[in-house]
Structure formats: C-alpha cells, structure tokens
Design goal:
With about 290 residues, the protein is of the alpha+beta class. It has one domain. It is built from 8 helices and 12 strands. The protein starts with about 35 loop residues before the first helix and ends in a 5-residue tail after the last strand.
C-alpha cells in the first residue's frame, strides 16, 4: 500500500491484496457510494455457511483466494457480465465476511475513497454470541463509518450501513475489556467463531487483535491465517501479553496514522508476511505454509 497522503487519505491507496490488477477497469461500473458498493458486492459472494447452500470441495477452495484480482477472476470466469450485474447465489464466489469486505474496500479505493477492513466481533449475527466478523470502514470526510457488506441495509432492526459502536466491537476493544475485567472469564467464551466450536475465548480474541492490526496496516489476511505471536491453544498464566496489549491500545485510536501501524508490523511476531500458515480452513486445508503479498 503506497500512501496517497497522511491521515485518512492514506487508506485511499490499494494494498497488494486489494489491488484489482488487470480487472481494474471493471470496477468503473461499481458506484463510488459506499451503500451501493455494499449492495453490488453482496451480489457476487455467497457466504459458505450463511448462504445455506452446499458447495463442492472444488468450489470451497475459493475460500482461500487472497487477492482481489484472483477473486474477481474467479467471479468473471463463471459469468463475464459487468460487475454491476448480480449473480445467482449458486454462481457467486464462495467466501466469507472477509471477502465481501475486501471487495468493498477495493471498489471504494478504486474510486479514491479511503476505506479499510475492521476485524472484530458482531453481536447481531446470532442470539447470545459475538461472532468473529470483518466489516467495511470508510471515511465520509468527517469520520470513519462502519458498514456490513454481508447483510442488507437493515438487519435485526439495526442500520448495517452505519453500524452502532455497540453492535460491532473491534478485537482490540474486546481484548482490552477482558484484560481490564470488564469482560470476565465466562463472558469471553461468547466471543469467537461459533458457540459450538473450539475457536473462541481469550486466546482467540487475542489472535484477532493481531489480525486487526494486519488488516488496518494493509495486509488483509484470511481469517484462518496464523503467524508469529499468535497462539493455537488456550491462555496460560505464564503467557506474556505485553506486546498484544500495546498493539490493542494503538488500535483503539481511529486516527492512528498508517505509518504507525506499518511500523508496528516490523516488531517480531507481528508481520503475517513472515512465516504465516493456514491453521484450519473451511476449504479443508490444514497447516499449509503460505506466501502473503506485500
């Protein structure tokens, strides 16, 4: 990501992952309005679980596509229609919240709109549980506005195009609340990939702080990537959380400069471009070493 300026303008430039490459001209057909971008993107991605559709192993491999250029290539290979034409659900890219958001970020950056992905937990995807989630954040000239491209404009009585801060909580917010005792040891178990899955709790939220840093710094990883300072087990009393605490404190500031985030990535264990692997992907890939662009 090459910054076009300081402040929010720095997020108007593509990262290596959001760069549409040879498909850039096709994004001209996507309106620059964030609400319209969310609508268009929703017509090109079917969530591998929430869609209710069943996909073959070959189709589920699309979940591991990283870059927007490859994602758009897969969409167009099945249907070469312009991007402002929605596809039938079974013909859409098989993806997740990360993919919808990264495509929305790419479309807005294509039009020079500062945009980025935010990693955290949503309380509106299911009763009594905070599901891991990635949402769009765009700058409207005054403030950063969060929107959920996966859902229609109104969901569960909430505005999905201007998310209430209490509806979506960033990983940094949740982690620091837990560290301060505002979220206790029982409550933190309600933050994760799902109430019936082992991917939840304090260690999972801790890892998501590092995911949040990577995404904000322009390295929009897959949600099943793991690297460096991440943990693949529950927390132990001997674990040192000093570095993660410091990262989380930085991420609380919506106006933190991009250069500060990039500098943080240079610290040992924080850069996913060094030694990352897929832990467990819904595609079936397990423990695979990966090369992340950047």
């Amino acid at each position: 990501m090459s910054a076009l300026g300081t402040g929010p303008a720095a997020w108007a430039a593509h990262s290596p992952i959001t760069d549409p490459g040879r498909h850039a001209p096709l994004l001209d057909a996507v309106p620059a309005d964030p609400s319209e971008v969310c609508r268009v993107v929703a017509g090109h991605v079917s969530h591998y679980v929430a869609s209710g559709l069943s996909f073959s192993r070959e189709r589920r491999a699309e979940l591991d596509l990283r870059g927007v250029e490859d994602m758009l290539g897969a969409i167009l290979e099945r249907d070469p229609a312009p991007l402002d034409v929605p596809r039938a659900p079974e013909q859409r890219l098989v993806g997740c919240c990360r993919d919808l958001t990264v495509l929305a970020v790419a479309a807005l950056r294509h039009h020079g709109v500062p945009a980025r992905s935010r990693v955290g937990f949503a309380g509106y995807l299911g009763e009594g549980f905070w599901y891991d989630h990635v949402v769009l954040e765009h700058f409207d000239g005054v403030r950063w506005v969060r929107a959920d491209p996966q859902l229609p404009p109104v969901h569960a009585g909430l505005d999905m195009r201007d998310l209430d801060p209490g509806a979506f909580r960033t990983a940094a917010q949740v982690w620091l609340d837990h560290r301060a005792g505002r979220i206790d040891e029982e409550q933190i178990l309600d933050f994760g990939a799902g109430p019936e899955l082992p991917f939840a709790g304090a260690y999972y939220v801790r890892n998501y702080v590092l995911l949040e840093l990577a995404h904000l710094a322009g390295v929009e990883t897959l949600l099943w990537d793991t690297w460096g300072a991440m943990l693949t087990r529950p927390l132990r009393r001997s674990d040192d959380h000093g570095l993660v605490d410091r990262v989380a404190e930085v991420l609380l500031d919506p106006d933190v400069p991009l250069d500060v985030l990039r500098e943080l990535l240079t610290e040992p264990g924080l850069d996913p471009r060094r030694g990352a692997r897929i832990l467990v992907s819904p595609s079936g890939v397990v423990g695979q070493e990966v090369q992340i662009p950047g």
